[in-house]
Design brief:
5 strands; about 260 residues; 12 helices; alpha/beta; elongated; 2 domains; about 55% helix; Glutaredoxin
Length: about 260
């Protein structure tokens, strides 16, 4: 569960929603009470549609509370804007201006809690950790042939993210949680900023110019790729991620069995 519920971002966006009853009573409510073609008042119809959209988003696309709360803010402010436009263009203008100012000045809070994720600033850092993994595999083979000792394989989980992607912000706490829950000597969690490493990530087959979904995850075993997400479909086109859920990531990358290997 998110620890950012009382952040400035959530507080100010909540105020933009809670202020609606006050603004509603400041304008001409006649247009709100007019009935639509189905016989319902316009205000009731718009609020009903809003609730239906939020419930549908929850049922089909829910991944974590942070993202869902932000979707509630977005759709609620959109619905309120439509309602205020019916009441008063002047009130509508000032409301849109307030939303724009808050969007520009108050950013979504970054996760600041515990994490076992290692930041990879550039290709050299990635290369070093890959070489360490490969060297461990060579040592394993050497010891196995001489001493019949089975060392553990080295897994490297890399998260490619962007500071400009809201999905990357929403999932920071999720990945931090995974890095702690599945911490193991044979599994390292790392991440790399694609904004400053575009040329390198494209060599890995992550084409940022094709609107690829971020965050992007690749699992390496002893320096060689074994799985990626979102990855590509049967036609070789990048898949789109509708949601990022812990159970899906754990299952696709087989994190539970990887941790069991070290025991």
């Amino acid at each position: 569960m998110s620890k950012n519920y009382f952040s400035a971002y959530n507080i100010f966006n909540s105020l933009l929603i809670l202020i609606y009853p006050i603004l509603r009573n400041s304008g001409n409510r006649y247009m709100l009470k007019r009935k639509d073609s189905w016989g319902y008042q316009r205000e009731d119809s718009i609020i009903t549609i809003l609730v239906a959209i939020i419930l549908l988003r929850y049922i089909k696309y829910f991944s974590n509370w942070d993202k869902f709360l932000c979707e509630i803010f977005f759709f609620s402010k959109f619905a309120i804007s439509v309602l205020l436009l019916l009441i008063s263009r002047k009130i509508f203008f000032w409301y849109i201006l307030a939303c724009l100012i808050i969007w520009l000045l108050i950013k979504y809070p970054r996760y600041q809690g515990p994490s076992n994720i290692i930041e990879l600033p550039n290709y050299e850092a990635f290369k070093d950790i890959i070489e360490q993994s490969q060297n461990k595999q060579k040592e394993k083979l050497h010891k196995k042939s001489h001493n019949n000792i089975n060392n553990k394989d080295g897994y490297l989980f890399v998260i490619f993210y962007s500071n400009y992607s809201y999905d990357c912000l929403y999932t920071e706490e999720l990945f931090a949680h995974l890095s702690i829950k599945y911490y193991a000597n044979n599994l390292a969690f790392t991440r790399m900023n694609v904004d400053i490493n575009e040329a390198f990530v494209e060599k890995l087959g992550i084409d940022l110019h094709k609107n690829v979904s971020l965050p992007y995850m690749i699992m390496f075993k002893n320096g060689k790729e074994v799985e990626r997400l979102p990855g590509y479909d049967e036609k070789g086109k990048p898949r789109k991620m509708k949601f990022y859920r812990e159970k899906d990531i754990v299952e696709i990358f087989d994190l539970k069995n990887i941790v069991k290997e070290q025991k």
